[in-house]
């Protein structure tokens, strides 16, 4: 591929999860396709997202479990040469590096010579200019450039290298001594807990009144009650100030004051559009310079540009990025209309599902509490009403199931419990398959298991439905 201008059917920009799915879908359909990425290769999930965060959470769980077994109030009596938090940290990062290496190999195996390692910008509705001097002319484009961590300019100027996001956290060779966390969404809560369980001095503050954007008020309260015992938290703080303090930082949020080596800004991620000159593609932009996106087709209005993954800012999760990559490529080929592409099957959206791996896990499935219809019945089970939770001495566990009162059809759920990731999947499958309270009660529930919480909630809901 040495020509100055490369002519293709579809050009995919970004070789992350969404981009790889888009390239694979278009290539398998017989379209002439290229995959463009400026590097470094390796998905955000593998480098700085879901994988290293879970590796560090696992490390924190191992260390905190050991600490919980030591006599309370007595000096730690550990054998010489025992594993340290720093070693666990290094092990977690080594696992991350292995995953990134594997991911990079997968990209090369997938695209081969169709992988163009360069940056790209639009110079016409059908043309990209690459940083290596070549051009790509395509009939359709899939933009899958991902997202980047929000890094407030004022904080950056004030704190310099003491301000980090997960982009830097997972590349620190040494486990921090202390960290102040700003933002208590999923990432802020997960990393605050993981670092605290590894022995790092952590305090966290957020402007939201709830942790991890939990919509259900009863689950939100249970989470706040439990996790505020795990590390110092300040919620609903409109004024969070952070200043340079020697070689570290001082964070103040209401009565909370915390001096730390770093401020971890966990303030979310924003779509990565810069450098693309997307307006040159004919894309219609809003008053903030963002593309108008047709939600069903993932198409940028007025163009042959389709988007997928975090750049769409729809559901910034890895499995959703994969689905969107496939969907965007299918829609692009359908729009081209060649031969059998007109009749390509459309991959439909799956039921929304979000999981915070906070141990106990927090999860929301299907329709969120704040979006429930009036015609709803809710089943609630707490730890004292669950045999397995009693055995685990976990009265903080809670599960809330939602169903439509008129039909009994499951709508969604919110929960906080050990192994909640597994319950969330089962409930997402049930919602997507349009199960009802009665059909779910026909299924087996082993005793004593966490799944019995589902059975108990369903029975409560059935009683309410019978009364109605």
TrEMBL record:
InterPro entries: FAD/NAD-bd_sf (IPR036188), FAD/NAD-binding_dom (IPR023753), FAD/NAD-linked_Rdtase_dimer_sf (IPR016156), Pyr_nucl-diS_OxRdtase_dimer (IPR004099). Residues 354-457 form the Pyridine nucleotide-disulphide oxidoreductase dimerisation domain. The keyword tRNA-binding does not apply. Keywords: FAD, Flavoprotein, Oxidoreductase. It is an enzyme of class 1 (oxidoreductase). Its cofactor is FAD. Its EC number is 1.8.1.4. One of its GO terms (molecular function) is dihydrolipoyl dehydrogenase (NADH) activity. Residues 9-325 form the FAD/NAD(P)-binding domain. Coiled coil: none annotated. PANTHER family: MERCURIC REDUCTASE, PYRIDINE NUCLEOTIDE-DISULFIDE OXIDOREDUCTASE RCLA-RELATED. This is Dihydrolipoyl dehydrogenase. It comes from Comamonas avium. The lineage of its organism: Bacteria, Pseudomonadati, Pseudomonadota, Betaproteobacteria, Burkholderiales.
